[in-house]
């Protein structure tokens, strides 16, 4: 068999390939030749073949078939074979493959070899891919080599010991005696690896950290080494850009940071040397900046003197003036971490930080924005807001939302006056209205409401802000609300803060009508505008007929929300005109619910935001009635109250005692209920709710003749009727019994009735009597709904019906608004 080509020739050949396919063909051909050589146990060229295989592995091609050949090379007596074998083991093997365990004996023999270079190969391999089992078996040999006088072996043994400690932390104490003399070594390689080993031990074990602080007096040794590095002259062996061994300096500073953290004595011992490093290190080259950055981190992390901390922040301030973007970013990030503890020192660099807002790099710009908001206080609020508002005008869209939120929070916390506060928020809404948080509109409305003396000024400013520009919807919403509340102040020209403008009632209505018909107006904005027009009917005197006409027009709007508002407002004009002025009077001063941070929606009665309704056909098998607790998001927004589930029961609910048992299964928290005692009514520990006062007396009155029944749904042969009862124990509870009948020729199976009501109500569905509605009206399904209406408001309900009929899954939604007044008054 001819001799295989050399590695150099293979590399040259592969590089001549013009396409990926051509390269793949060359690799496959060479891999086939290497496999054949391995099968023939060719010892002469095994080393060459494994070397070529490693090169192909580096190119991303599979080379796992060479793993055993690596083990054979490791077992060879030739150093060249061992070198390639160990290299292959580090590249092709890891602890997930059992093959690596076969190396343990070879590594142990090589660790005791007479040649230091063979020992070095074994240490490198063990430190690279040794498993926990290998580390346990070979830790003794590593510890012996750590005590040797050979610097070449000591530095490799120290790094190997780091790997052993990471794999088997309980072996840490084995290396403790060997660490005593490591820092007395002159060789920088040994010093560097020794510091890495000590750092690993201190990070992993609090006991080791305390031992090195107290017993070993490690800090003075490290200070001595660092001082020698700073004061030593030029050494070509260790010099990097005029600084002596910066890698060792950085490692020592990191270890000092660990030793000085939360320790007064250690921190005091290193204060002087840290000041020396901070003042004597050259900053013209990146090497010096790296050492200074580590020095700053160490100063900030230990219990250092206040003067030293100021020095560290000044170094970061100098970093902000550096041309290198990475250094500026690092400085901003570090200042952001320290601004809470050293606020005054960071404030000195405020102008430099604000200048970073103009940087072209988006990462620097974001860090500068976050740090600028952290620097805002009552003394600099005006100047900082001026800069941040200018930044808001010119920044990219992805910054506007965060910047607007930050300005809102800062203005709320440090506003020097209410007028300034209102002007600032209006400026944000004018500049970036479409990017502000959802709670910006109600928060500003609340602020304006509470600033009684600013009402005339605010409504005039808002009126001028939206003249001809409706692009910023939150601004238009606030303006519409204010014009509706304080339109009379706008028309009367009572503004004292600035020159009043002359506005007529018709001009005000023109603006609100143009908002209603604008293509840029959202449904929410139109609702604000229509409500504002309605409010003006009690504030204006000459345009009431025009307002009636506008409101009546929108009674037939295709927008359901707008239509409903208009219909209700029309009813106010016609049936309840005597109540209109009282209902539309000015809003009282609002109480603040939350301060700082995103406003939280205050949920009452344990209500949560409804999940979106998933529309999918019901399964073919019987559907458990407990699925009726699906929340129907039918009325839109957060205006839905959840259905509280009842535990399913297999007993009919006709008998009085069984009805009480069924009611006893109800749990208000959704957790499984305990089995009810048959002879007693369970005691409810939850807050007062629909079943308050449950006792042995009858739960409900007989059907009251004064509450007529209604037909809630009648379509496709399915008819749903509602009958009403009032609770004896709680007059606010209306009990609705539904009766579902089927006039078609086939049964309706898997019938599920679901309902949702506005949040001012609470609704509870009890279990239905069956899930099958018999055909030809031969039977009905009954189900009880209990509605708590503490505010005696008109009842509205959305219902969802799902069932199987004639082999098809049917689903329908309907709204029930014709409840008799006796059922809710």
Q: How many strand segments? A: 12
The average pLDDT value, as a whole number, equals 82
The rounded distance between the terminal residues' Cα atoms is 104 Å
C-alpha-based Rg, rounded = 40 Å
| Strand adjacency order, main sheet | 4-9-10-7-6-5
Q: How does the major sheet shape up?
A: 6 strands, mixed
| Tally of helical runs | 32
| Fraction of residues in H or I helices | 40-55%
SS content category: alpha+beta
**Which parts are unreliable, with pLDDT below 50 for 5 consecutive residues or more?**
594-704
Shape: extended
Q: Tell me the β content.
A: 5-15%
Keywords: Coated pit, Cytoplasm, Cytoplasmic vesicle, Golgi apparatus, Membrane, Protein transport, Transport
Membrane topology: Peripheral membrane protein
Pfam families: Adaptin_N, Alpha_adaptinC2
GO molecular function, one term: GTP-dependent protein binding
What do you see in this structure?
Residues 596-629 are annotated as: Disordered. Pfam families: Adaptin_N (PF01602), Alpha_adaptinC2 (PF02883). It is a peripheral membrane protein. This protein is of the alpha+beta class and 825 residues long. 51% of the residues lie in helices and 9% in strands. It has 32 helices and 12 strands. Helix 6 (104-111) crosses helix 7 (116-129). It is extended. The model is unreliable at 594-704 (pLDDT under 50).
Topology:
Layout: H1 7-15, H2 20-39, H3 46-58, H4 67-75, H5 79-92, H6 104-111, H7 116-129, H8 132-146, H9 151-167, H10 188-204, H11 206-214, H12 218-231, E1 239-240, E2 243-244, H13 246-260, H14 264-280, H15 286-301, H16 306-319, H17 325-338, H18 343-347, H19 350-355, H20 362-375, H21 381-394, H22 397-414, H23 418-432, H24 440-450, H25 455-465, H26 473-492, H27 505-517, H28 523-539, H29 544-553, H30 560-574, H31 577-583, E3 640-641, E4 643-644, H32 656-664, E5 710-715, E6 718-726, E7 733-742, E8 749-758, E9 762-765, E10 781-788, E11 797-805, E12 808-816
Parallel strand pairs: 4-9
Antiparallel strand pairs: 1-2, 3-8, 5-6, 6-7, 7-10, 8-11, 9-10, 11-12
Helix pairs in contact: 2-3, 3-5, 4-5, 5-7, 6-7, 6-8, 7-9, 8-9, 9-10, 10-11, 10-13, 12-13, 12-14, 13-15, 14-15, 14-16, 15-16, 15-17, 16-17, 17-20, 20-22, 21-22, 21-23, 22-23, 24-26, 25-26, 26-27, 26-28, 27-28, 28-29, 28-30, 29-30, 30-31
């Amino acid at each position: 068999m001819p001799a295989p080509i050399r590695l150099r020739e293979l590399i040259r050949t592969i590089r001549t390939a013009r396409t990926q396919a051509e390269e793949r063909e060359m690799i496959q051909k060479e891999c086939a030749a290497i496999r054949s050589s391995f099968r023939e146990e060719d010892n002469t060229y095994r080393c060459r073949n494994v070397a070529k295989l490693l090169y192909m592995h580096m190119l991303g091609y599979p080379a796992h078939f060479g793993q055993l050949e690596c083990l054979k090379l490791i077992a060879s007596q030739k150093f060249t074979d061992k070198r390639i074998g160990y290299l292959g083991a580090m590249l092709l093997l890891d602890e997930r493959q059992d093959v690596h365990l076969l190396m343990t004996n070879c590594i142990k023999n090589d660790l005791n070899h007479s040649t230091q270079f063979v020992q070095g190969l074994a240490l490198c391999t063990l430190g690279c891919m040794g498993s926990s089992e290998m580390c346990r078996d070979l830790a003794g040999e590593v510890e012996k080599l750590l005590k040797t006088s050979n610097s070449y072996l000591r530095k490799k043994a120290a790094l190997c010991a780091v790997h052993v400690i990471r794999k088997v932390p309980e072996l840490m104490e084995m290396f403790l005696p060997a660490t005593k003399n490591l820092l007395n070594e002159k060789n920088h390689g040994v010093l560097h690896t020794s510091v890495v080993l000590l750092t690993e031990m201190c990070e992993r074990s609090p006991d080791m950290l305390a031992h090195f602080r107290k017993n070993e007096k490690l800090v003075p040794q490290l200070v001595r080494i660092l001082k020698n590095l700073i004061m030593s002259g030029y050494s070509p062996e260790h010099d990097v850009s005029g600084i002596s061994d910066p890698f060792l300096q950085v490692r020592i500073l990191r270890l000092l940071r660990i030793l000085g953290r939360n320790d007064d004595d250690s921190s005091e011992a290193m204060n002087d040397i840290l000041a020396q490093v901070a003042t004597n290190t050259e900053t013209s080259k990146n090497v010096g900046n790296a050492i200074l950055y580590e020095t700053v981190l160490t100063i900030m992390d230990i219990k250092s003197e206040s003067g030293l901390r100021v020095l560290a922040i000044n170094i970061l301030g100098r970093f902000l003036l550096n041309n290198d973007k990475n250094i500026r970013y690092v400085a901003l990030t570090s200042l952001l971490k320290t601004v809470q503890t050293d606020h005054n020192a960071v404030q000195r660099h405020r102008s430099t930080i604000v200048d970073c807002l103009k940087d072209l790099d988006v990462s620097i710009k974001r860090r500068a924005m976050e740090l600028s908001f952290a620097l805002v206080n009552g003394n600099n609020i005006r100047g900082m807001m001026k800069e941040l508002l200018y930044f808001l005008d010119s920044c990219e869209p992805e910054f506007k939302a965060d910047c607007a939120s930050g300005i809102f929070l800062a203005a709320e916390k440090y506003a020097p006056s209410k007028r300034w506060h209102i002007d600032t928020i209006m400026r944000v809404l004018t500049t970036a209205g479409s990017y502000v948080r959802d709670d910006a509109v109600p928060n500003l409305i609340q602020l304006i409401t509470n600033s009684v003396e600013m009402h005339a000024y605010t409504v005039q400013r808002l009126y001028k802000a939206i003249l001809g520009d409706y692009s910023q919807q939150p601004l238009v919403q606030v303006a519409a609300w204010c014009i509706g509340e304080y339109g009379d102040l706008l028309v009367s020209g009572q503004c004292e803060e600035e020159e009043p403008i002359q506005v007529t009632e018709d001009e005000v209505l023109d603006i609100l009508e143009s908002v209603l018909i604008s293509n840029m107006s959202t449904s929410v904005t139109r609702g604000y505008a229509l409500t504002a027009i309605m409010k003006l009917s009690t504030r204006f005197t000459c345009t009431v007929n025009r307002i009636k006409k506008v409101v009546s027009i929108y009674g037939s709007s295709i927008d359901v929300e707008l239509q409903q508002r208009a219909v209700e407002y029309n009813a106010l004009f016609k049936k309840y005109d005597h109540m209109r002025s009282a209902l539309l009077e000015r809003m009282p001063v609002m109480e603040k619910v939350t301060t700082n941070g995103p406003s939280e929606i205050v949920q009452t009665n344990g209500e949560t935001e409804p999940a979106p309704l998933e529309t999918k056909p019901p399964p073919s098998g019987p559907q458990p009635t407990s699925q009726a607790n699906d929340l129907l998001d039918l009325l839109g927004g957060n205006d839905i109250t959840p259905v509280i589930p009842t535990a399913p029961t297999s007993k009919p609910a006709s008998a009085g005692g069984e009805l009480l048992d069924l009611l006893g299964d109800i749990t208000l928290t959704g957790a499984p209920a305990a089995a009810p005692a048959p002879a007693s009514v369970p005691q409810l520990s939850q807050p007062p709710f629909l079943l308050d006062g449950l006792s042995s007396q009858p739960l409900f009155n007989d059907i009251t003749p004064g509450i007529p029944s209604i037909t809630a749904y009648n379509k496709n042969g399915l008819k749903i009727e509602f009958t009403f009862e009032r609770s004896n124990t709680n007059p606010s509870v209306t009990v609705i019994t539904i009766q579902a009948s089927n006039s078609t020729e086939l049964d309706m199976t898997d019938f599920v009735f679901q309902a949702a009501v506005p949040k001012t109500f609470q609704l509870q569905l009890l279990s239905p009597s069956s899930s099958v509605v018999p055909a030809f009206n031969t039977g009905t399904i009954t189900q009880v709904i209990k509605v708590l209406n503490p505010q005696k408001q008109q009842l509205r309900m959305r219902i969802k019906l799902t069932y199987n009929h004639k082999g098809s899954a049917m689903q329908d939604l309907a709204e029930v608004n014709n409840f008799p007044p006796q059922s809710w008054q």
